[in-house]
Amino acid sequence: MTACLVANSGKRVIYGDAQGKIRFWRPGDVQSSDPLDGTPVSELALSPDENRLAAAGVGPGPQATLQLWDTATQRRLANTQFPVPTNDVIWSVALSPDGIHMVVGFVRGSLWIWNTEAPGPPKRVDETSFYGAALGQAFSSDGHRLAVATGAGVWIFDFPNGQVLRHLDGLTQASRRVAFSPDGRRLAVGGADGTLTLWEPESGQQLLRLSGHPDRINEIKFLPNGKSIVSLSNAELRIWRAGEK
Question: Which CATH superfamily groups domain 3-182?
Answer without folding.
Answer: YVTN repeat-like/Quinoprotein amine dehydrogenase (2.130.10.10)
